[in-house]
């Protein structure tokens, strides 16, 4: 499955700077009972986004006019910790989130985002905090992210550079199908497997 | 470059098909995967849509564990449409792609991380990836296990490999004797409390030291299992004679000459004496006290003798806000003694702590006593085999006599994907791994602790120091 390439995206950035936002909070259990990827925008941050009577919670950032329809989220440390559920990433994507900017991300969540074409940008903590303060002001919410140039442009034109591994960058820029790429190495995998099973015959 | 290697290096080197760049990415060969009903459906659909096959179906084992009920009378039917669809789609996928399935009525059914070691499906030296974060459990057998998402499951099914970035290495040395009443759960909870919920993010942990050596294989599984709550993407221990004894004669373990050959090779699975780790942490087990969580992240934990901490005492603004939010959710006031916290539920279950040794521990605490009148207490064995063994040993009768519900196996109230769900405001002493907001039910409050501590709390109706439990009338 090819992905939507990520080149240059402009939009609003919503701040959510609490630490350790886990995937149970991002996508609660009642939305995990499907066998496809659809309908998960409804479940995203469900207990935070909606009040107990089902009405949108006006206090939640994605419900506030300045950040409604955000393309980015600026998040606190260890975002995406906990369960491996990829439903969390599918939900973010279906809500229109194209990239997350934070100081650290949980490992499985990081890989899940990559595999869905969602860009994760890691900034050091002081810079992230300053960036978070900027987008927390309604007038500072509009940003753009240029993956090719590895730059975030703030509303006032300030540029924040970021690092990303070449392999991940290329895959995101091209929207590559990871499985297709790997299967081009089938002969190499087969050769490795023969030798591996011969050396460890109990694995056969 | 030094030739001395860590155990992690050895696992990754021996499973590297090829290097993909000079930034640490490799194509990693995966020996085994375990598949469940809730994270796999979209992976199989992806294969079907792309008309791809499964690379090597015999390396996968599927089990139903997350959505099934745990009511004492086990039936094949799922009570809800979503769960039923996931279970029937798993059966269809396993049939079409030739993967062995342990369905809900199978005597070998149970939580994936309990049954895979139990069946001898996991062996030292293996690399295992599975669609569940607690795949780190397998590190206790000297294997390297890590959790992956659904897209990676599909990649693994199709190619037997993953595009993998090498982690940094962290050695955690735990020395000293645990005080009576303390368990490996207290060790890992203390470690998480100390290094934080992302303290090991980007690292693979190797545990060593006299405390680890002295633990049983099952107790070690609890430590590797919960290492992911510190962010570790893999945690393991060098396999020793205890591991070999644990595995010998397991249904899928090699037999005869092949077994001897395997053990010979497994003895080399340890870090070289002069191997360098990127980071070192040490923990004195003799100074530990029984641990409980008071917040909504596994690192918000304290010894049971402590008080609920005061956010005012925390200088870091983010940490202070997190603590305030956590205490608000948990309905706790700063300064309150943890042992004054009254519970409504007690749950012993999960891939962290529902093996036979855990149930023996808990049974020894509750024998001849009664669950407090205001507490609903449940035991959900980690596997059907554990359940059957506990019944044969008389443990089930002890629990039932004490007023516990004796249930069938599954993930159950650890994540409450089935019908074992807490109501808003319920407060549960739990032998599980995550105290996240809403984890056991929207608005429900979770306190993590060892199975023995849960058992004691069930009897007294409040969080209780297991070391003084016998003193109570």
Tell me what the structure shows.
The complex is a heterodimer of chains A (204) and B (473). Chain A is α/β, with parallel strands linked by helices and 204 residues long. Chain A has 8 helices and 7 strands. Chain A has one domain: Aconitase, domain 4 (Alpha-Beta Barrel), CATH 3.20.19. Helices cover 32% and strands 16% of the residues of chain A. In chain A, strand 6 (151-153) and strand 7 (159-161) form a beta hairpin. Chain B folds into 2 domains: 7-279, Aconitase, domain 3 (2-Layer Sandwich); 293-471, Aconitase, domain 3 (2-Layer Sandwich). Helices cover 32% and strands 16% of the residues of chain B. Chain B has 15 helices and 19 strands. In chain B, the strands form 6 sheets. Chain B has a 5-stranded parallel β-sheet with strand order 17-16-15-18-19. A 4-stranded parallel β-sheet of chain B has the order 11-10-9-12. The chains are: A alpha/beta (204), B alpha/beta (473). At the A-B interface, helix 4, helix 7 and helix 8 of A face strand 2, helix 2, helix 3, helix 5 and strand 8 of B.
Which band does the percent of strand residues of chain B land in?
A: 15-25%
What is the residue-averaged pLDDT of chain A?
97
Spatial extent as radius of gyration of chain B: 22 Å
Q: What does the main sheet of chain A amount to? A: 7 strands, mixed
CATH topology of chain A: Aconitase, domain 4
Do you know the CATH architecture of the largest domain in chain B? 2-Layer Sandwich
Catalytic activity (chain B): (2R,3S)-3-isopropylmalate = (2S)-2-isopropylmalate
GO biological process, one term (chain B): L-leucine biosynthetic process
Subunit structure (chain B): Heterodimer of LeuC and LeuD.
Pathway (chain B): Amino-acid biosynthesis; L-leucine biosynthesis; L-leucine from 3-methyl-2-oxobutanoate: step 2/4
């Amino acid at each position: 499955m090819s992905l939507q390439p990520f080149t240059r995206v402009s939009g609003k950035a919503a701040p959510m700077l609490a630490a350790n936002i886990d995937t149970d909070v991002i996508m609660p259990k009642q939305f995990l009972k499907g066998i496809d990827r659809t309908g998960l925008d409804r479940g995203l941050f469900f207990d935070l986004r909606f009040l107990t009577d089902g009405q949108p919670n006006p206090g939640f950032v994605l419900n506030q006019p300045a950040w409604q329809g955000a393309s980015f989220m600026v998040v606190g440390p260890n975002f995406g910790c906990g369960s491996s559920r990829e439903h969390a990433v599918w939900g973010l994507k279906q809500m229109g989130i194209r990239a997350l900017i934070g100081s650290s991300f949980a490992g499985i969540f990081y890989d899940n985002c990559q595999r869905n074409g969602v860009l994760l940008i890691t900034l050091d903590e002081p810079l992230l905090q300053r960036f978070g303060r900027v987008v927390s002001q309604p007038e500072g919410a509009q940003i753009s992210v240029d993956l090719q140039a590895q730059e975030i442009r703030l509303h006032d034109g300030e540029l924040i550079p970021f690092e990303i591994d070449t392999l991940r960058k290329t895959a995101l820029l091209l929207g590559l199908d990871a499985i297709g790429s790997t299967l081009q190495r089938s002969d190499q995998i087969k050769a490795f497997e023969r030798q591996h099973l011969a050396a460890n015959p109990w694995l056969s | 470059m030094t030739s001395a290697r860590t155990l992690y290096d050895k696992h990754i080197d021996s499973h590297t098909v090829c290097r993909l760049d000079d930034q640490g990415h490799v194509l990693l060969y995966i020996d085994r995967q375990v598949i469940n009903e809730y994270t796999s459906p979209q992976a199989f659909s992806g294969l079907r849509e792309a008309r791809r096959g499964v690379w090597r179906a015999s390396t996968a084992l599927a089990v139903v564990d997350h959505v099934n009920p745990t009511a004492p009378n086990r039936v094949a039917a799922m009570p809800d449409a979503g769960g039923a669809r996931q279970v029937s789609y798993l059966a269809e996928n396993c049939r079409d792609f030739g993967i062995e399935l342990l369905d809900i009525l199978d005597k070998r059914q149970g939580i994936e991380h309990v049954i895979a070691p139990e069946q001898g499906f996991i062996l030292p030296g293996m690399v295992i990836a599975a669609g569940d974060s607690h795949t780190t459990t397998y590190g206790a057998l000297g294997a390297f296990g890590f959790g992956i998402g659904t897209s990676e499951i599909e990649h693994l099914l199709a190619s037997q490999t993953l595009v993998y970035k090498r982690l940094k290495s962290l050695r955690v040395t735990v020395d000293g004797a645990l005080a009576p009443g303390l368990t490996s759960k207290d060790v890992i909870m203390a470690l998480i409390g100390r290094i934080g919920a992302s303290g090991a993010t980007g690292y693979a942990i190797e545990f060593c030291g006299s405390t680890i050596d002295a633990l049983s294989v099952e107790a070690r599984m609890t430590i590797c299992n919960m290492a992911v709550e510190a962010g570790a993407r893999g945690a393991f221990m060098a396999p020793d004679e205890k591991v070999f004894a644990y595995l010998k004669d397991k249904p899928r373990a090699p037999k005869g000459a092949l077994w001897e050959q395997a053990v010979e090779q497994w003895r080399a699975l340890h870090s070289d004496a002069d191997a360098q780790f990127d980071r070192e942490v040490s923990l004195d087990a003799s100074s530990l006290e029984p641990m409980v969580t008071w917040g909504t992240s596994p690192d918000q934990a304290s010894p049971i003798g402590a008080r609920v901490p005061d956010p005012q005492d925390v200088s870091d603004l983010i940490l202070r806000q997190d603590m305030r939010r956590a205490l608000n959710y948990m309905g706790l006031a700063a300064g309150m003694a943890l042992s004054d916290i009254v519970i409504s539920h007690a749950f012993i279950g999960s891939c962290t702590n529902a093996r036979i040794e855990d149930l023996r521990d808990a049974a020894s605490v509750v024998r001849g006593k009664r669950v407090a009148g205001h507490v609903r207490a449940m035991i959900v064995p980690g596997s059907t085999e554990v359940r059957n063994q506990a019944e044969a040993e008389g443990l089930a009768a002890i629990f039932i006599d004490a007023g516990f519900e004796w249930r069938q196996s599954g993930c159950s109230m650890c994540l409450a994907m089935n019908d074992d769900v807490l109501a808003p405001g319920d407060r549960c002493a739990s032998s599980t791994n995550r105290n996240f907001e809403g984890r056991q039910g929207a608005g429900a409050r979770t306190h993590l602790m060892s199975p023995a501590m849960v058992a004691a709390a069930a009897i007294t109706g409040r969080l209780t120091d297991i070391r003084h439990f016998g003193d109570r009338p």
